[in-house]
Amino acid sequence: MSTIFVRSVLGQSRRSVFAAPARLASTSAKQSTLKERLADLIPAEIENVKATRAAHGKKSFGPVIVDQLYGGMRGLPALIWDGSVLDADEGIRFRGKTIPECQELLPKAPGGSEPLPEALFWLLVTGEVPTQEQVATLSKEWAARSAIPEFVEEILDRCPPTLHPMSQFSLAVTALNHDSAFAKAYAAGISKKEYWGPVFEDCMDLIAKLPNIAGRIYRNVYGGGKLPAIDAEKDYSWNLATLLGFGDNKEFVELMRLYVTIHSDHEGGNVSAHTGKLVASALSDPFLAFGASLNGLAGPLHGLANQEVLVWLRKMQSKLGENASDEAVKEYVWSTLKAGQVVPGYGHAVLRKTDPRYMAQREFALKHLPDDPMFKLVAQVFKIVPDILLAAGKAKNPWPNVDAHSGVLLAHYGLTEMQFYTVLFGVSRAFGVSAQLIWDRALGAPIERPKSYSTAAIQKMFANKQ
Ligand SMILES: CC(C)(COP(=O)(O)OP(=O)(O)OC[C@H]1O[C@@H](n2cnc3c(N)ncnc32)[C@H](O)[C@@H]1OP(=O)(O)O)[C@@H](O)C(=O)NCCC(=O)NCCS
């Protein structure tokens, strides 16, 4: 992450608390809880934002062109989020750390080699690498908050199994707003300066309750018997895997740790992250805001692509059989494009190289399931699709994204129900959206209200200009 020095009004150099090197940052306040550590960091960051705005607030950093208004605001600088930054060539960094750096630096489960999502959340919220002990405390705290209200269980139990798991997920998360600490505090007249406290509590509850919601949806729709209880001695991913019925498979549990970590956040502008931020800017509580995020994630150009990839691969496999030739795969890819459809799992609005989240999953597959026939097909498609997308000449990025790989890993371990895949993406995305909502309220982010224009106004504006 680039270091930000700002000349404060007092003439002193001020440095973002998040620009501190991890070595220094992680030595401080080892024994604090996450909330205590956050409370320490907020005042300095409020001053840092004030100083940044005082020094640079009126400066422009790039023109807005009319195509951006019609083109989905692509590349328009419009949001602030310090938790993660996406570079077109390099991919995502979480508080300045690449995925391989997170895999190396963040605490792991005993005997495990993938980072614990608890640690990633701590990093997103504080900019610091937590200790093993802090991570264990967070696992316990989430386990203690994990129960969902009976009426939410009933809502899920009454959903027809034909209702898409993402719709069920969104219903349940929205209904959690019944017990929102923030909504209650707001109704009781809380001061603006205190917003972040109850929002933090809601976000902790939200993340903690997701394994019970996801597990219940999975078992209601696909069978698998009664939901086991959360084990307070185990980590979040172990509990998530267990509630889905895969907890006795150590490799699957490791996959969940990697999966949740890499799907957690992808800077602030993607549909799910931005939707959450936008809705929460109206001071809707985190459950309402994240429910909206999930509805965006459920679109096939965003999170649902992980379902679509496996549907597409299976169709290809049933048409071409196993061990299809490169020529046959090429023809199949072209037939998808000629039918006016997208190749799911390829392309990206920001990335211009292979997604490091794809590579992390590929490394996992090479380590644990190198001979899986579907992994071999994914690897074959990886060799073939980019050249075809380049030849077709439309996609700005011909390379695979995160969704091109995740389904194959889940299917390998027996989680074959493709319609459920985006729910796991949703569980993960709660980590990034929550971190962002906490900081937005701590920094007093205002209600969002960009300006829209009519086509007639654009034409008039440029009527007499070249
Ligand atoms: C991710 C995605 C929505 C980004 O969209 P974008 O920013 O508009 O992408 P581009 O600017 O490269 O799009 C330019 C054109 O190439 C097409 N294109 C982009 N990716 C494509 C793909 N994988 N297959 C076929 N066509 C693709 C777009 O549909 C668009 O066509 P149009 O001009 O007819 O509308 C797009 O790449 C896509 O649909 N990918 C497949 C779905 C997917 O994997 N989504 C998960 C993303 S993490």
TrEMBL record:
<dbReference type="InterPro" id="IPR016143">
    <property type="entry name" value="Citrate_synth-like_sm_a-sub"/>
</dbReference>
<dbReference type="InterPro" id="IPR019810">
    <property type="entry name" value="Citrate_synthase_AS"/>
</dbReference>
<dbReference type="InterPro" id="IPR010109">
    <property type="entry name" value="Citrate_synthase_euk"/>
</dbReference>
<dbReference type="Pfam" id="PF00285">
    <property type="entry name" value="Citrate_synt"/>
</dbReference>
<dbReference type="GO" id="GO:0005759">
    <property type="term" value="C:mitochondrial matrix"/>
</dbReference>
<dbReference type="GO" id="GO:0046912">
    <property type="term" value="F:acyltransferase activity, acyl groups converted into alkyl on transfer"/>
</dbReference>
<feature type="active site">
    <location>
        <position position="302"/>
    </location>
</feature>
<dbReference type="GO" id="GO:0005975">
    <property type="term" value="P:carbohydrate metabolic process"/>
</dbReference>
<dbReference type="GO" id="GO:0006099">
    <property type="term" value="P:tricarboxylic acid cycle"/>
</dbReference>
<feature type="active site">
    <location>
        <position position="403"/>
    </location>
</feature>
<feature type="active site">
    <location>
        <position position="348"/>
    </location>
</feature>
<dbReference type="InterPro" id="IPR016142">
    <property type="entry name" value="Citrate_synth-like_lrg_a-sub"/>
</dbReference>
<protein>
    <recommendedName>
        <fullName>Citrate synthase</fullName>
    </recommendedName>
</protein>
<dbReference type="InterPro" id="IPR036969">
    <property type="entry name" value="Citrate_synthase_sf"/>
</dbReference>
<dbReference type="InterPro" id="IPR002020">
    <property type="entry name" value="Citrate_synthase"/>
</dbReference>
<keyword id="KW-0808">Transferase</keyword>
<comment type="similarity">
    <text>Belongs to the citrate synthase family.</text>
</comment>
<dbReference type="GO" id="GO:0006101">
    <property type="term" value="P:citrate metabolic process"/>
</dbReference>
